[in-house]
Design brief:
383 residues, mainly alpha, three-stranded antiparallel β-sheet, two-stranded parallel ribbon, 20 helices, 53% helix, globular, binds zinc ion
C-alpha cells in the first residue's frame, strides 16, 4: 500500500480519503473493504481508528492527534480528566469522537490555499484550521472560506470547491472587521497548537484575575452576566446570531450558561468556543491570554480540589455524602462519575451538562440526587 506523508495541518478524515484514493479505493462503501484488505488489518484491532492511522503513517498517536485531528480544539479545556494527546483513547471515550468532530456548518475550504497546495504539494487537502467553529475566513489569505457540500469529505478540496457555496457575505464581512471576533479566531487557532488540554483551574484563575483588573465583578458561584453582556455588545451582528445565538438572552440580563460559567466553573468544562469567546472579551490578544495561562499553570496543580464558599459547603457535603452512600448496585467507576456529576451540579452546572461531562445518564444522576436528598428532608436538615 502506498502511504503518503500527512501534510501540515491535514485533517485525519481528509487524509484517510486521500490515502484510499491513492491506492485505488474510492467511495464510502470501499472504505471498510480497503481497511480489511490492506495492512491496516494487521494493526492491533483494539486500537482506535486514529491510533491505527498513526501507526500506519509511522507517527506516535500523540503526534498524530496533535497535528491532524480536531482534538486539541474540541478538548481545549477540561475539568478533572486533563487530556494529554498521548493518552490512548478507547473507542467509547468522548475524546475519541471529538478527534473527528468538525465545524457544525460543514466542510470549509479556502480556494487560495487549495490552489497553492496543488502547486506546492501536488495535491489540495483539508486543513484543520479551516474547520474551527466560528472561524469563517482563512487567516493566511484573509479571505472568506467556502462552504462545501456534505459529500465533500470524500473528495479533495480542489474538486469540492467547484460545487461550494460562499458563506453569507454580510456575516463574513462583519466577522473579519470585528476586533473581538478576530481575537476569538486567534484563540481557536492557539488551542489547536496546544499539546494538552488546559485545566478549568488555570482558566478560572486567569479569567477571575483579569476580571478584577478590568473592574468587572467576578466571584466563583456568583450569578453574573458580565462576560455574556460584554460579548453580546462586542460581537453583535449576523456572526453572533449564527455561532452564539444564546448571547441574545444576555440582552434581558439572563445568564448565558456556557459563556458566563467559564470564569467560575472548575468542575465542569464547557466547549472550546465558550472559552475562546471569554478570552477574546477579556484579553487584548491570544498571545497575552496564553502568557497568563502559562504563568498560572506553574502556580496551580491540575485537579486541585475546589474550594466551595463556606455558606454552601455544609449542604453540598451532605448531598455528596448521602448520594454516594446511597448509590448501590453501580460499579465503583460509575459511582465516582455520578459523584463528580453531582459535584458539578452543586457547583452550578445544569443536569444535562453535568451528566454528559461525566458520561452518566441524566436519569441516573437525578435518581442519585433524589436518594441523596431524602435523608436530608427526613431529618429536617433542610432549611
Ligand atoms: Zn487560504
Amino acid at each position: 500500500m502506498n502511504v503518503p506523508v500527512p501534510l501540515p495541518d491535514e485533517l485525519a478524515n481528509g487524509y484517510t480519503e486521500r490515502l484510499l484514493r491513492l491506492n485505488g479505493y474510492s467511495g464510502a462503501t470501499c472504505k471498510s473493504r480497503a481497511f480489511s484488505e490492506s495492512n491496516f488489518r494487521k494493526v492491533l484491532p483494539q486500537l482506535s481508528w486514529i491510533e491505527k492511522l498513526a501507526r500506519f503513517v509511522g507517527q506516535s498517536p500523540e503526534q498524530f492527534r496533535h497535528q491532524h485531528t480536531m482534538l486539541p480544539f474540541n478538548g481545549a479545556v477540561r475539568a478533572k480528566d486533563l487530556i494529554r494527546w498521548s493518552m490512548s483513547s478507547p473507542q467509547r471515550s468522548p475524546f475519541h469522537y471529538s478527534a473527528g468532530k468538525l465545524n457544525p456548518l460543514g466542510m470549509l475550504a479556502c480556494p487560495q490555499c487549495a490552489k497553492e497546495d496543488t502547486a506546492f504539494w501536488g495535491v489540495s487537502y483539508w486543513r484543520r484550521s479551516h474547520q474551527l467553529t466560528g472561524v469563517v475566513w482563512c487567516a493566511k489569505h484573509e479571505a472568506p472560506l467556502m462552504l462545501c457540500d456534505p459529500s465533500a469529505a470524500s473528495s479533495l478540496p480542489s474538486e469540492a470547491l467547484s460545487r461550494a457555496k460562499p458563506l453569507d457575505r454580510k456575516l463574513v464581512t462583519q466577522a473579519m472587521a470585528n476586533v473581538t471576533v478576530r481575537k476569538y479566531a486567534e484563540m481557536c487557532a492557539s488551542f489547536l497548537a496546544n499539546s494538552r488540554s488546559l485545566s478549568t483551574h488555570q482558566v478560572v484563575h486567569c479569567l477571575q484575575a483579569r476580571a478584577a483588573t478590568l473592574g468587572i465583578r467576578a466571584h466563583s458561584g456568583v450569578r453574573s452576566s458580565h462576560i455574556s453582556r460584554v460579548a453580546l455588545q462586542a460581537t453583535e451582528g449576523p456572526w453572533q446570531q449564527m455561532f452564539f445565538p444564546d448571547l441574545a438572552r444576555a440582552r434581558e440580563g439572563a445568564f448565558v450558561d456556557s459563556i458566563d460559567r467559564t470564569y467560575s466553573s472548575r468542575n465542569v468544562a464547557y466547549k472550546a468556543p465558550a472559552y475562546a469567546m471569554a478570552f477574546a472579551v477579556f484579553y487584548d490578544s491570544a498571545e497575552d491570554a496564553f502568557a497568563d495561562l502559562d504563568a498560572s499553570s506553574a502556580l496551580l496543580s491540575p485537579g486541585r480540589p475546589t474550594r466551595d464558599k463556606p455558606a454552601n459547603r455544609r449542604s453540598h457535603s451532605a448531598l455528596r455524602k448521602h448520594s454516594v452512600d446511597r448509590i448501590t448496585g453501580s460499579s465503583e467507576k460509575v459511582q465516582t462519575r455520578i459523584r463528580m456529576a453531582i459535584e458539578a451540579f452543586v457547583d452550578g452546572a445544569s443536569i444535562a451538562d453535568a451528566a454528559s461531562e461525566q458520561r452518566v445518564s441524566e436519569d441516573e444522576l437525578r435518581e442519585a440526587m433524589r436518594n441523596a436528598l431524602r435523608p436530608a428532608f427526613a431529618s429536617q436538615q433542610w432549611s
